[in-house]
Amino acid sequence: MLRKLERDFVAADLAAVEGLLSNYGEDVDPIGFLQFTERKKRLQRQLQDLDNLIKDQLEIGVFFDGPPVDHRYGISAEFCGEAIALLSALMAPHGRLFVTVLGRRTIGLLLRVGEEGVQSAAYMLPIDALDRVARNPHTIECLDQSILDLLNLLKKQRASMRIVCGAHDFTLDYRMAASTS
C-alpha cells in the first residue's frame, strides 16, 4: 500500500515532466530540455522498478473500528492480536505475514508477505474469499472456519475491519457475523 502511494507520486511527477516537455521545445532551452528528458527517463525507470516491487510484494492494509478502538489511545492489544492471529491463520497455507507499519491517524497496520518468491496470487485467494463475504455475507455454505472465527471475533467485540489489498477495498463488519450464526 505504501509502495502503491509512492508509485502514484512518481506517476504524477512523470506526468508533470511529460507535460513540461510537451510545452517546452528543445530549441527554446536545450539544456533545460535535456535535463527534463533525463528526469523523464529516471522517473520511467523508477516507475518500472516500483511496478515490479508492487507485483512481487503483497501488502495488506488492515484498519479497525468499533468499541475495541479508542481513537485517542489506540486499539485493544488483545483484540488486535487475536484479529491478526486469525487473519494470519487464514493466510498461513501461503506463507508468513509480517506487521510492518502501524497506522498513526487511523487505527490500523500494514501486513507484508515475508517470503521471497511467494506468488502473491496465492495470497489473493483468502483476500478474494473475504471480499466475497463482505459483498454477500449470506454465503454461509462457502465460509471456511477461519473466516467464521474472524467474523465471530468481530461480532463478539462489535467491531469492523477494513482490508485494502491491491484492487480490493472492503469492510468486514460485526453485523455480518449475525448472518453466519
Automatic annotation (TrEMBL):
<protein>
    <submittedName>
        <fullName>Uncharacterized protein</fullName>
    </submittedName>
</protein>
<feature type="coiled-coil region">
    <location>
        <begin position="33"/>
        <end position="60"/>
    </location>
</feature>
<keyword id="KW-0175">Coiled coil</keyword>
